From TrEMBL, chain A:
Classification via InterPro entries: 2-oxoacid/accept_OxRdtase_asu, Pyruvate:ferred/Flavod_OxRd, Pyrv/ketoisovalerate_OxRed_cat, Pyrv_Fd/Flavodoxin_OxRdtase_N, Pyrv_flavodox_OxRed_cen, THDP-binding, Transketo_C/PFOR_II
PANTHER family per UniProt: 2-OXOGLUTARATE OXIDOREDUCTASE SUBUNIT KORA, PYRUVATE-FLAVODOXIN OXIDOREDUCTASE-RELATED
Protein name per the record: 2-oxoacid:acceptor oxidoreductase subunit alpha
Classification of source organism: Bacteria, Bacillati, Actinomycetota, Actinomycetes, Kineosporiales
GO MF terms held by the record: magnesium ion binding; oxidoreductase activity, acting on the aldehyde or oxo group of donors
Highest taxon listed in the record's lineage: Bacteria
Organism: Kineosporia babensis
GO biological process, one term: response to oxidative stress
Domain called Pyruvate/ketoisovalerate oxidoreductase catalytic: residue spans: 35-222
Residues in Pyruvate flavodoxin/ferredoxin oxidoreductase pyrimidine binding domain copies: 273-484
Swiss-Prot/TrEMBL keywords: Oxidoreductase
UniProtKB/TrEMBL annotation, chain B:
GO BP: cellular respiration
Domain Thiamine pyrophosphate enzyme TPP-binding: 73-220
Assigned keywords, A-Z: Oxidoreductase
InterPro entries: 2-oxoacid:Fd_oxidoreductase (IPR051457), THDP-binding (IPR029061), TPP_enzyme_TPP-bd (IPR011766)
Tagged with keyword ATP-binding: no
GO molecular function, one term: magnesium ion binding
Record's protein name: 2-oxoacid:ferredoxin oxidoreductase subunit beta
This protein's record includes keyword Oxidoreductase: yes
Source organism per UniProt: Kineosporia babensis
């Protein structure tokens, strides 16, 4: 083993170094056992990459089990990172490099790796026993099964143990640092700086000096291994991506969403009260907000999903901004209380971080299949505005928009994130706090005449928000139908008809910006329209299709209820409309029903985002041939 | 093991609620009477409870606009419409959950939950026990008529075994809940029982409940004249009641019956037994301790109750002091703001958004 101190303090090398090759983008997938620290390794590599100014997108993919049996296929955890010298729209279709920490990781991921790409395997874990666990009779590293790929067999575990022998750790403890060795190697290979990770390790293990020293040594040893081993003759450099000037950070969707709620509370001057019950993949929002007390954020971890939204609604009744966070199964349980909030006409934000369904489904995988539940999953005519962020960083703005609509129109608002946005990350240009929307709210004021809690603002149709504590505004309201104006119980047929229509008109009238179309040539015949996290894959897929000469326009719906006023005009402008969704055609159903257009769905429910290649193929089929090939897609309706 | 949470331990349930000043007009029963026509059936026990509440609310001296009554679904849950305060008639079983959010957000409110045996113990059972264990500063009135009234007469979770109802034509096979036992099992800090027809006792118990800081559960035996009429008649007949009602007084030996001839003692096996006082020494009588933090004996008292109502302890079973959930939650928020030298500023928010790792792209 070489001297581990060989890492220069400044790890960037000279650009004219012939051992460095310039490339414009790369996709790396780290894969290993759940206990191998792949998410941490991926996070650190991402942080170093972000600090280089590359644009990037990430896709963590992990099992629902905390620790599935070691070395088995169900226990494989992976983290994919796409970074480039240009704007990155997706975490990458297929990896260029697969780091496989054991046979299970290789087997589970090899199918995604195009031939000719690079595999780094930890040969130490390719033991007879581990191979047998996943059904390999011989090591694929040795029997020629990987001939079509560039394979770098590296005894990662034993190199790590060797590098750490002076620390007097047990073998088991030494082995645990092998993810840092792998990280060091990849940092060398892609010219990532090392200072950030060193700083990170210092903070994380500052109080346990022996662990800190071991991790640092493993990280440096991995770096030095790349530098000095002939197997890795060339390393790669990816230039920074051009980006608008400003200060940037990397951020995941769940963190951005939590920060958006904090910012909305700050800009409204009202306390945020979160009622939540732990559920994957939404729990990180609860975790983040529970640490925001100095921002006046109160978090209530309730006894169940129903209580969680109940507490949020109670807080809204009291004049706070009530928020509840959940995923699909939890949204189902909250339905009745959302209906009450529709009837009470109080502000409330319901965040659904969608995951694979039905039932428990795929808790850690992404899906967009709660759109119809969000739209219609309640008894009675119970309209609520629905908003969906399009990327991890956009979760910040979407959360602020949800609070704006909820408080302005006194209505529950559904914010539909998903598992991919929640855990994925991307660079985010920090907004100036003073530039964030002013969300100031007016409560009902003391008055002399009898208070009428259901009188409406003629513009917004919103009723007064009258929290308790104001003399003269004492009033009683509930889930029973209320008389227009007075809010008293009313069973009058005409009044009910009127109130149902008023509530609908209020939501239909929410101010929503017009739908924008991206049509670079201006003569596209095909429109691809999507919502939520398919934004990146659709944009990337359209880019590929255009490169192949297809004239295609794209549009993205951020507001699902109400739709932008020009949605019908946009849809009718194109001969063919394609709607890719990670469900069996829920937006397609809504658009076809509302606008009577022959929009086609392109649907997958594999728990994974679309690849740009899949979208490009679907676009090309529809554009060039007009439907025959797409008939197979249509069948998924 | 206890943690010193820095909270004052004995505070009124009304601490923080604005009281009337010397210049404010004196409140009367009329101030708490809403205009809505009361629509309970003639003879319903709810009328007596409403009258008692309207009657004693003015005595509390708090501002009417700071009183909120939250209810679920059922006959009892119409209560808020008849009280001229703020009122929220919510959905079935969820009033304790909604009230928890309201109380946590608003320390200046006096919040009541009005519920029934179906609402609180069946569909809302989970919320009730969790509100009680958290000790949210709420006064919970549980109207127990042992029947579903608003849905027209099905058996409830407090109906006696064998009960014939529309949904149990050959008799209920369910074992009922004893609401007092349930509340004590959840370690509620205030647990009491009273009777709709005993205005004086009802008022006295409610007053103690509202002044208690924390979750106060008051079970009120309440007659449904339509679907379960006479369920508590034996407790309302003068002679019968004397033989059955055990009026609990903190610090007093537990005696009841004609001339206090009956009493409660602890048997050798640790259970409680009803005996003739003459057969034991007076010193052997159990002295009621509502303030014992260990609810075991209070629970044993609640088990004297039987479906036949042969012995019915009435009064305050338990009244102990424990920091409330909402006070503790607010203390954490205000503590964080104090540590920050005040509520977060724009700069604090900017620092949060930036995090620790940023990079700059120049023009």
């Amino acid at each position: 083993m070489e001297d581990t101190a060989a890492v220069p303090a400044d790890s960037s090398r000279q650009p004219n170094d012939s051992r460095i090759r310039q490339i414009d983008s790369v996709v790396i997938r780290f894969a290993g056992d759940s206990g191998d620290g792949m998410q941490l390794t991926g996070d650190r590599f991402t942080a170093e990459t972000a600090s280089m100014g590359n644009d990037l997108a990430t896709l963590p993919n992990f099992p629902a089990e905390i620790r599935a049996p070691q070395g088995t296929l169900p226990g494989v955890s992976s983290f994919q990172l796409h970074f480039a010298d240009h704007d990155v729209l997706t975490p990458g279709d297929a990896p260029d490099v697969l780091v496989a920490m054991n046979p299970a990781a290789l087997k589970a991921n090899l199918g995604d790796l195009p031939r000719g790409k690079t595999i780094i395997v930890n040969t130490d874990e390719f033991t007879k026993r581990n191979l047998a666990k996943v059904g390999y009779s011989a090591s694929p590293v040795e029997d020629g099964a990987l001939e079509s790929w560039q394979v770098h067999p590296v005894p990662l575990t034993s190199l790590t143990v060797e590098a750490l022998k002076e620390f007097g750790l047990s073998r088991k403890d030494s082995e645990r640092s092998k993810n840092m060795f792998a990280l060091g190697l990849l940092c060398w290979l892609y010219n990532r700086p090392t200072e950030g990770t060193e700083r990170f390790l210092n903070t994380k293990f500052g109080r346990r000096p022996e662990i800190l020293a071991a991790n640092l040594a493993a990280f440096k040893a991995g770096w030095a291994f790349g530098e000095t081993t002939e197997g890795f003759a060339v390393s790669y450099e990816i230039a920074p991506a051009p980006a608008p000037s400003g200060t940037y950070r990397n951020i995941t969707g769940n963190t951005a969403l939590a920060y958006g709620l904090v910012a909305a509370g700050h800009r409204s001057g009202l306390p945020i009260v979160l009622g939540s019950y732990p559920i994957t993949p939404a729990s990180d929002i609860l975790h983040a907000l529970s640490g925001m007390k100095k921002f006046g954020v109160t978090t209530i971890q309730a006894e169940d999903e129903i209580s969680a939204i109940g507490a949020a609604l109670g807080a809204s009744y009291g004049g706070a901004i009530g928020v509840t966070t959940t995923s699909g199964p939890g949204l189902a349980l909250k339905s009745e209380t959302i209906g009450l909030a529709v009837s009470l006409e109080l502000p409330l934000v319901i965040v659904d971080v969608q995951r694979g369904g039905p039932s428990t489904g795929l808790p850690t995988k992404t899906e967009q299949s709660d759109l119809l539940q969000a739209m219609y999953g309640r008894n009675g005519e119970s309209p609520v505005p629905v908003i969906a962020p399009r990327s991890p960083a956009d979760c910040f703005d979407a959360a602020i928009e949800a609070v704006r609509v909820a408080t302005k129109y006194r209505t529950p608002v559904l914010l539909l994130s998903d598992g991919y946005l929640a855990n994925g990350s991307e660079p985010w240009r920090l907004p100036a706090v003073a530039d964030l929307p002013d969300l100031h709210v007016e409560f009902a004021q003391k008055q002399d005449e009898a208070f009428r809690p259901y009188d409406r603002d003629p513009q917004t149709l919103a009723r007064p928000w009258a929290p308790p504590g104001v003399q003269g505004l004492e009033h009683r309201i509930g889930g029973i139908e209320k008389a227009d104006g007075t809010g008293e119980i009313s069973y009058d047929p005409d009044n009910h008809d009127k109130m149902v229509r008023l509530r609908q008109a209020k939501v239909d009238g929410v101010d929503v910006p017009p739908l924008e179309v991206d049509d670079p040539t201006g003569d596209a015949e095909v429109l691809v329209i999507g919502w939520g996290s398919t934004f990146g894959p659709i944009a990337a897929g359209a880019r590929v299709a255009r490169r192949n000469g297809i004239r295609v326009a794209t549009a993205h719906l951020r507001h699902l209820n109400p739709f932008p006023a020009n949605t019908g005009d946009v849809l009718r402008r194109y001969q063919r409309v394609l709607i890719p969704e990670m469900n069996l055609g829920q937006l397609a159903l809504l658009l076809r029903a509302k606008y009577l257009v022959d929009a086609r769905g392109y649907n997958q429910v594999r728990g994974l985002p679309f690849s740009s290649a899949e979208i490009a193929t679907a676009i090309t089929s529809l554009a060039t041939e007009g439907g025959l090939e797409l008939s197979s897609l249509e069948e998924t309706h | 093991m206890t943690t010193e949470l820095g909270m004052p331990t004995v505070l009124s349930g009304l601490a923080g609620v604005p009281h009337l000043g010397p210049d404010d007009a004196k409140q009367t029963r009329k101030d708490f009477t809403a205009g809505a026509e009361v629509r309970w059936c003639p003879g319903c026990g709810d009328y007596a409870i409403l009258a008692a509440v309207q009657g004693f609310m003015p005595e509390l001296g708090i501002k009417r606009e700071n009183v909120v009554c939250v209810s679920g679904i059922g006959c009892s849950s119409r209560f808020p419409y008849y009280l001229d305060t703020y009122g929220l008639h919510s959905i079935h079983g969820r009033a304790p959950a909604i009230a928890t959010g309201l109380v946590t957000a608003r320390p200046d409110l006096n919040v009541w939950v009005v519920t029934g045996d179906g609402d609180a113990l069946s569909i809302g059972g989970n919320h009730l026990i969790h509100a009680l264990r958290r000790n949210v500063n709420l006064t919970i009135l549980l109207f127990n008529n042992r029947i579903y009234g608003l849905t027209k007469g099905q058996y409830s979770p407090t109906s006696e075994p064998g009960k014939i109802t529309k949904s149990t034509p050959v008799g209920s096979v369910d074992t009922p809940f004893n609401p007092i036992s349930l509340a004590l099992g959840a370690e509620a800090t205030f647990v009491a029982r009273t009777l709709d027809s005993d205005r004086k006792h009802l008022t006295s118990v409610l007053r103690q409940a509202v002044e208690h800081r924390g979750s106060a559960l008051v079970e009120i035996y309440q007659n449904c004249p339509i679907f379960n009429d006479g369920a508590f008649d034996v407790l309302k007949d003068r002679d019968e009641a004397q033989a059955r009602l055990i009026r609990l007084e903190h610090g007093e030996p537990i005696r009841f019956g004609v001339d206090g001839a009956r009493g409660v003692v602890r048997a050798a096996d640790g259970t409680l037994q009803v005996v003739d006082v003459a057969s034991v020494s007076e010193e052997a009588l159990l002295v009621h301790d509502a303030q014992n933090p260990n609810p075991a004996t209070q629970f044993a008292l609640s088990r004297l109750d039987e479906e036949t109502l042969s012995h019915v302890p009435l009064g305050v079973f338990r009244k102990v002091s424990r920091p409330t959930y909402d006070d503790l939650v607010r203390a954490q928020v205000s503590g964080a703001q104090e540590a920050n030298n005040g509520p977060a500023t724009d700069d604090d928010l900017a620092a949060l958004l930036a995090g620790r790792d940023t990079w700059t792209v120049a023009d």
